[in-house]
Amino acid sequence: MATAGVVAEPKTKYDRQLRKRVFDGESIVFIILRKSFSFVNLRLVSNVDEGCLGQPRAKSICSFLQELNDAVKAKFVEETPATLIDTNPSFFSQFTVVIATQLPESSLLKLDDICRKADIVLVAARSYGLTGLVRVSVKEHCVIESKPDHFLDDLRLHNPWAELKQFAKSIDINDKDPVVHKHTPYIVILVRLAEKWADAHDGNLPSTRQEKREFKDLIRAHMLNVDEENYKEAVESSYKVSVTPGISDEVRQIIDDNSAEVNSSSSDFWILVAALKEFVANEGNGELPLEGTIPDMTSLTEYYVSLQKIYQAKAEADCLAMEHRVKDTLKRIGRDPDSISRAYIKTFCKNARKLRVCRYRSIEEEFSPIVSEVQRYFTDEDYSYAMNFYILLRAVDRLAANYSRLPGIFDSEIDEDIPRLKTVAASVLSEMGLIGASLSEDLITEMCRFGGAEIHPVAAFIGGVASQEVIKLVTKQFVPLRGTFIFNGIDLKSQVLVL
Amino acid sequence: MATPDAQPTEPARWRDLDMLLSRPGNLVAASFDPSPTLRDEIGSFAEVLVVGAGGLGCELLKDLALSGFKNLHVIDMDTIDVSNLNRQFLFRVQDVGKSKAQVAAKRVMERVSGVNIKPHFCRIEDKEIEFYSQFHIIVLGLDSIEARSYINSVACGFLEYDSNDNPIPETAKPMVDGGTEGFKGHARVIIPGTTPCFECNIWLFPPQVKFPLCTLAETPRTAAHCIEYAHLIKWDEVHPGKPFDADDAEHMQWIYSEALKRAELFGISGVTYSLTQGVVKNIIPAIASTNAIISAACALEAFKLFSGCSKTVSNYLTYNGLEGTHIKVTEFVRDKDCLVCGPGTLIELDTSATLSQFIKMLEEHPNLRISKASVTHEGNNLYMQSPEVLEQMTRPNLSVPMFELLKEVPCATVHATGMAENNGKKVSSLRKLRVAFKGVIGDSKMDTTESS
Ligand SMILES: [Zn+2]
């Protein structure tokens, strides 16, 4: 359990600052402004932590948070979130992220509207019996460093540039010296043999299954010995020669987005996308800037280091070309040509293949979803519980608005609350255009049994998911949740609904 | 939502939990017996062990204490390091150097009245096997495969089989296991004899890929190669006979400077002190929110297992937060031939075979290969390799026939602890063995069992 060094990254540091995992944390609008927080809550501590019984909840949470990290500035407001939303909407404009916990539907709708208008990220979290949800809402969230788990290396074996070809030519892949032969990096082997293949096939690279198989045989034919690791790697990586040239659909969509038609009010991200579009059409020859790193592979140190330098040099040249395009673009829209830093452009180029743009429908829009999507979720066995919980979580708020209490709060009224909840849920369904759809009777009964109870491990799970998403949203690294996460505490099969 | 703002009485404080425990439902375990006193019964009856008081352990203790469990134990041999403070939220700067288990127990007890947590500041192997039998459920918050494997074998060791080789459910000791790596994690429920044990799906935890020594010695290409060269080759060359200690800052500094020299020599970039630590100690960055999510899932499953108030996960959950929030539940199946959760490896003995001959057989057995085994039978030590006092006390047994030591029964179950190969590594292991004596009346069952 000893850990050190590596963990002190900014994201983990942030993580700690963003934690709200103190011992009692319900009904709070929890707000973040970089290194400072505000909590809005009127209620007093009444539950578990006896040391602070009777104190304002928001106040005791602030003190716990500062105990965890004294660099955090935490403030509290003694007010009900609903009142603040109604009477002082401009209060929220000072924040980067607003996290709304246990807020009923009516207040959430208003808060979402306030946050959208001010371009503030809203994260809503709800813990309800053995279910709950986390929802992200913001107009647009652009990610440069999406850091996907598995991503194809950017080796350009299908389209090697002059320096790479030249280096590959400088190594004799038929060298009979066994040490050199088994330490020739697979990049060199593949560049050379792809060329040989193309020469024999009218300039085409292997593309059909049969051709790919024959290409592998060609590689194997060059082995001196069956245990040459570099040739094994070449066979395993031979598909990298056959990758489709050009850019992925996902990046194509971003380049072709309307926002890439930039003007003086465009964000830096979209200005870079505009520059990228020009780069692809011009010096990129249909390709994105090169990433510039290569994976480890069997090789003499000298060959490997030379290859690294060749890839790096090409990446730097591409980045420089991008820099010129960015400056031109900034000039064109009347902004200072130096207003976007080199470092930012470099990160953008390195990650050009991994750009992501996440757009979220507003909560109001979500309430009238595309009927066919909802129907698909309902009929898909993997999603039907999540869809049921989603409807029921909305229905309990409706019922609470009518009866001034959640269903199932009182033991004596559970039996009456079950049909009541069923009726309200049916009206939610029909508003969504789902006439005749029915919910699971078992889940309706479960929702009444829950009675709005806050079960600590469920709240902790929901709080954990919400904090994870906040970290990603604030650091603009990794890809945030794209919709509503529905927690299923019954068999843990949770799902994300995009409505 | 439901809690009144007035000074709560004890039931009011737990009102939310009681709603779930006192009301009948349709999606619950067959054993669920809802009642207003169920929480109290669980609180006073259940004994829960949390293994590990690190990132997951801190969260687990808090989560379990707030789920109505009142008798908790926590075991961890580590002391608090300054680098733990960013996510092991029960620890403060003034706690650095103190026992994790002790501080964690104290902090949670301070905050949640009525909960009693007993800390154990020691290695998991230091406890007698019987120590583990007192718990109804064992929750694992570990980051090491070896430690998981050990606890798993201990818990599975308690499982008894009937004469038809069917597991006896009452003897099963359930475990809930959690683990995280960066933005990913898993939570699983292990009910020995019913769901797969840790060893049944050991392939889920592939051994660490090691660099070939010839790469390190002759053709280094990456910063990690240079670091491993300094760590695995150069250290022994320069410091013969002096073991490397990853927790010694001077040792680490030496590795770093040697790695740097080598990187310079080969024109390799990227060697940093933090990378050196990362490579040598095999550190995977831990993220607090992932720990929170996984621990919460584990605590919830422990709570549901115990109360029966809902279904439980079947049986393996994975979480991936790299891209959105991706949760997947997979139902793995048991390995019927599992050495750990199966009925136990059958060993046939002549009635004259002594304990020391038996220990030798374990060493040579193709499926076991346990060296330096200590042997216990129903909690009694037959032979213990250590500590010295026990070794001396049990040494006379070595020359006694097993048949005599096992009170002349035709067959019996014994446990052997020793070093055995697991996942390519020699680690301390516990194995359950069924001993049958050849030619003794009453062993008809053994005749039909295939000898392994
Ligand atoms: Zn097993």
Automatic annotation (TrEMBL), chain A:
Keywords: Ubl conjugation pathway. Regulatory subunit of the dimeric E1 enzyme. E1 activates RUB1/NEDD8 by first adenylating its C-terminal glycine residue with ATP, thereafter linking this residue to the side chain of the catalytic cysteine, yielding a RUB1-ECR1 thioester and free AMP. E1 finally transfers RUB1 to the catalytic cysteine of RCE1. One of its GO terms (molecular function) is NEDD8 activating enzyme activity. One of its GO terms (cellular component) is cytoplasm. Pfam families: ThiF. Pathway: Protein modification; protein neddylation. InterPro entries: APP-BP1, ThiF/MoeB/HesA, ThiF_NAD_FAD-bd, Ubiquitin-activating_enz. GO terms for biological process: protein neddylation. Belongs to the ubiquitin-activating E1 family. ULA1 subfamily. This is NEDD8-activating enzyme E1 regulatory subunit. Residues 52-483 form the THIF-type NAD/FAD binding fold domain.
UniProtKB/TrEMBL annotation, chain B:
Residues 347-438 form the E2 binding domain. One of its GO terms (biological process) is protein neddylation. It comes from the Eukaryota. The active site is at C214. The keyword Oxidoreductase does not apply. It is an enzyme of class 6 (ligase). One of its GO terms (molecular function) is ATP binding. The keyword Ligase applies. Pathway: Protein modification; protein neddylation. SMART domains: E2_bind (SM01181). Keywords: ATP-binding, Ligase, Nucleotide-binding, Ubl conjugation pathway. It catalyses: ATP + [NEDD8 protein] + [E1 NEDD8-activating enzyme]-L-cysteine = AMP + diphosphate + [E1 NEDD8-activating enzyme]-S-[NEDD8 protein]-yl-L-cysteine. This is NEDD8-activating enzyme E1 catalytic subunit. It comes from Dichanthelium oligosanthes.
